[in-house]
Write a structure and sequence with these properties.
There is one protein chain. This protein starts with a helix and ends in an 11-residue tail after the last strand. The relative contact order is 0.10. It is built from ten helices and 21 strands. The chain is of the alpha+beta class. The protein is elongated, with a radius of gyration of 25 Å. The chain has helices spanning 3-13, 27-33, 56-65, 84-97, 111-119, 131-136, 141-166, 205-218, 279-298, 305-318, and strands at 17-22, 41-46, 49-54, 70-73, 102-106, 123-127, 169-170, 196-198, 201-202, 221-222, 227-230, 251-255, 258-259, 268-272, 339-341, 348-352, 364-367, 370-373, 377-380, 383-387, 392-394. A hairpin with a 4-residue loop joins strand 20 and strand 21 (392-394).
Length: 405
């Protein structure tokens, strides 16, 4: 990380240090400490150095793995097990030992730690600027490579999902309805004409997700959730999707895995149709690809995320489709931002939206326009790009094709 930007911030607000009390799930903690501690631990940045305080259980691993100048353990401050007061005494001793009399903590606390340190004569302010999130939005070459590796795994998973769709038959066409197995032991959609069928069973969102997750595991990645949503479900951008998938409908597949080793994320969306899509959803797909290209063409250092968002919106608005810019209360059309930053969090700065800030080299952003209406379905196409010194590099190398062959 660029520690100079954190030094400048501390000098600006007039404090000695920056303190985080969190576990590895906090991206700022992971970024500053470089340590994957499953339990909360302290990281203090002061006087140009990173200091980590962990339990004896984690001390040996932290010494080897943490991106810290100094690693201390609880026993260094005469603490192993005790109540909250004893723990807070240890925290205060740790901070004071680094000649820190004043510090800031993230706005999300924990408030108990902040109040306890104040009670022990350490001045604690709040980082309302979320400076570490701002700093880590600009990626180093190594971080870009981490995202690149995660995206390669993502594309392997998308290929596995698309291949599964391509191998499906269609009930009532290639397969007799009576030959179709029941769904999950019940009759929900079993045998309905137009339903996709794979190896004698209805092809469901759950089955496609399983294929995605298994492929990601084989490529060193994992994810808690993914989106495989067809038909009316695809009209809700965050509907994870469930149940049987059908021919002639748009199926949105949005995969956002995290690489297990680096902890960096990737993100990509494609929309597929097995069979012949209706005229309106086909027009939506072409329009969304046009919006994607317009947004990509707008990306370069110095432009704002708002300008990139506007480029996508204008394509839709010129075609008569509603957007949040034209109708903030619309529930159909283009009803989300054009994109977001990605790194240790799957959603982070910068934002491609109204009010989006200036793009800088090293920013990695998704570009994901889409259209939604329960009466029609949903379409979204998403690429992942990094802003370069004079343009951008598209980290996504996956074809944009609606019809599955």
């Amino acid at each position: 990380m660029d520690r100079s930007r954190l030094d400048d911030y501390l000098a600006e607000v007039g404090v000695d240090g920056y303190l985080i009390d969190a576990d590895q799930d906090d991206a700022n903690q992971l970024y500053l400490s470089g340590f994957t501690g499953p339990d909360p631990f302290l990281t203090l940045y002061a006087d140009g150095e990173v200091h980590v305080l962990v339990s004896g259980l984690e001390y040996g691993r932290a010494k080897k793995e943490a991106d810290a100048d100094v690693v201390d353990r609880h026993s260094d401050y005469d603490y192993e097990y005790g109540g909250p007061d004893a723990r807070y005494d240890m925290y205060a001793d740790f901070v004071a030992d680094k000649d820190v009399e004043s510090l800031v903590m993230p706005s999300r606390g924990p408030v108990g730690t902040a109040d306890a340190l104040r009670d022990r004569d350490i001045a604690v302010g709040v980082d309302t600027d979320d400076v570490l999130t701002e700093i880590r939005a600009v990626k180093t070459d190594a971080e870009i490579d981490h995202v690149r590796v995660a995206q390669e795994a993502n594309e392997a998973a998308m290929r596995a999902a698309e291949d599964l769709l391509a191998s499906a038959d269609v009930a009532g066409e290639d397969v007799a309805v009576d030959d179709v197995a029941e769904v999950g032991g019940g009759t929900d959609g079993a045998g309905e004409p137009g339903m996709l069928v794979h190896e004698g069973a209805p092809l469901t969102s759950e089955r496609v997700k399983e294929e995605i997750e298994v492929t990601l595991l084989r490529h060193g990645c994992a994810l808690d959730q993914t989106i495989v949503a067809g038909g009316a479900q695809a009209a809700d951008p965050h509907d994870r999707g469930s149940g049987p998938l059908r021919a002639n409908e748009a199926i949105i597949i949005d995969i956002f895995p995290r690489h297990k080793a680096s902890k960096y994320n990737a993100d990509m969306t494609r929309t597929f149709c097995v069979g012949e899509p209706g005229e309106e959803i086909a027009e939506w797909y072409d329009l969304t690809e046009e919006a994607l290209n317009a947004a990509l063409d707008a990306i370069e250092p110095g432009v704002t995320g708002e300008e990139v968002h506007a480029a996508a919106c204008e394509v839709y608005e010129d075609a008569g489709e509603p957007t949040f810019r034209t109708d903030p209360e619309t529930e159909t059309g283009f009803i989300h931002s054009t994109g977001h930053g990605i790194g240790l969090d799957v959603h982070e700065l910068p934002r491609l939206s109204n009010g989006g800030s200036t793009l800088e080299p090293g920013h990695i952003v998704t570009v994901e326009p889409g259209l939604y209406d329960p009466d029609v379905g949903g379409v979204r196409i998403e690429d992942l790009v990094v802003v370069t010194e004079d343009d951008y590099e598209n980290l996504t190398d996956y074809p944009i094709e609606f019809r599955v062959d």
